[in-house]
Amino acid sequence: MIVCIAEKPSVARDIARILGANSSHDGYMEGNGYQVTWTFGHLCELKMPEDYTIVWKEWRLDFLPMIPQRFGIRVKEDQGIKKQFATIEKLMQNADSIINCGDAGQEGELIQRWVMQKAQATCPVQRLWISSMTDEAIKEGFAQLKDQKEYQSLYIAGLSRAVGDWLLGINATRLYTLKYGQNHQVLSIGRVQTPTLALIVKRQYEIDHFEPEQYWVLATVYRDTTFTATKGRFTSKEEGEQAFSIIEGKPFTVTDVQKKNGKEAPPSLYDLTSLQVDCNKKFGYSAEMTLNLIQSLYEKKYTTYPRVDTTFLSDDIYPKCPQTLNGIFQTKFNGQAPYAELIKPLGGKQLTKSKKVFDSSKVTDHHAIIPTGVTPQGLSDAEKNVFDLVAKRFISVFYPDCKFAQTIVTGKVEDIEFKVTGKTILEPGWRVVYSKDQENNDEDEAKKKEEERTLPIFEKNESGEHTPTLTEKWTTPPKPYTEATLLRAMETAGRLVDNEELRAAMKENGIGRPSTRAAIIETLFKRHYIKRNRTSIAPTPTGVELIGLIHEELLKSAELTGIWEKKLRDIERNKENFNSEAQEFINGLKQQITEIVSQVKADPTNRRVTVINEEESKKDKTAKKKNTRKKKSESPKEGDPCPICGQGHIIKGKTAYGCSRWKEGCTYRAPFKK
What we know:
The structure is a single chain. By secondary structure, the protein is of the alpha+beta class. The chain has 22 helices and 22 strands. Strand 10 (214-222) and strand 11 form a beta hairpin. The two termini are 50 Å apart.
């Protein structure tokens, strides 16, 4: 008997249907020589300190650092999980072979490997590796099964990550709680969460301590066009007034008119982070909500594997693109075909194949997020929004570049130079795909409109009257993080990068992985280290105090954490020496945590984090109760944020609406309205 193990019951059902395993049993499906079972995400986890020695159950400074000689795993303390594991264990011990059908990524590999190890499976294991859940992709994947040994480096990288997080998280949390906490308040420290919190605290510090500086801008209006002095800002009013007096009443002369044509390529396809960023900007969705929505679209077979960090497609995807576009062409929402008119111009001719889209060298395990070509049915409003972004981005990459003409006009009054820039769209190209979208009313959009203004026709040496202005302005503080900008900061280890190519190169050293960043942000919310102020994110007093306590740069440096992340990626990609690299990574962490423990123990100060969370929690609970009472009188909408936990989204059950996080304990429930 061949045992297949998937990561979720829904995925297992799809696989079982295709394999012909149609007989249902408690915890698995059977038929045609296959038994298809499933996990619920992580069934197993690394052992806790008390599992190694009972004395480690007690939180004491003199027990730190806790470094097991050999790490072990255990089944999670949950009756439902234990029951399912017992079923899996029985199947695996009687299996002739096993097919690992877990999610095709580092975390999916770790989940299933731990289960197989704990079940003491000894038979041969093959790996199913697919990027979409369509029937065609599953069949193709089973026709191309690989030996699990080919993914050993992926597993070792995942294991190294888990061990590293245990070493630092367990030891540092106990260390700081015992040394600086009070009244049993746990101070949670994490390899990724603490540097992320430090980014937010640092930004808030810059905002709170910002001292605005006054400056003056000299400009003049000539032929209804505003020209700005090229000198830039004047730091004193006297200097600005002196320049103003020089040009007042004197003629303005155009000194040069430069025109050049340019091209703008379509935006890159989506990776998970860029999709989360756009969903936060356009719809206000949290990173976690976007991840849940795109995961749902993946499991429903409408989009490809979502937990990716590449914006490229491999070359073998190109021949399948016409079929994918045909599926999008047939998509209808509320009786309308929103993509038909956009795809028609692409029909009947060979699709563009750009190196900025198709490049196998930029793709490792998975390609960018794209539609599968399966026509979506029954999507919630929120799912439609996410699908629409992915579909339009995919369509746009086959359109020609946007062609524009840029005009730079310089002028002069006496010795003071002025300049204005205009941009005229000659051929919209890919911009046609987005022409009907509502534009964002934010500063980015305003800046874009400013850059793309059309100028009158100016001639060199023309001259005439003008109206000068001297405007007083003040420097503004940095903006608070939103989830969108925080995700970008995590992706680039806190460095501000606007250039898309440079940002892509820096992903190697980002904080965390695309699939974990949403959970990290939510963890900081749950622990009351950060809070939402409408669309922005701010640290709580507790979060500020915690970062203020941490003097060890290793624990809060985004750059150092990015270096760790790079080492983990190197382990994953190294098909030969991954074991030695992993050992080097773990040994380095052991040494670092030992040094941190020693430094903190030796701290002679009597610093403490004050207990602020209790009062904040009371305010939050009161606000949630009011919000719940208000929401109960309204009809909920699928895909909207949960009014109780704020982290899940509303889903439709058999008898009522509920929260997608009901398994995590959210109690939101609303009956159907008649």
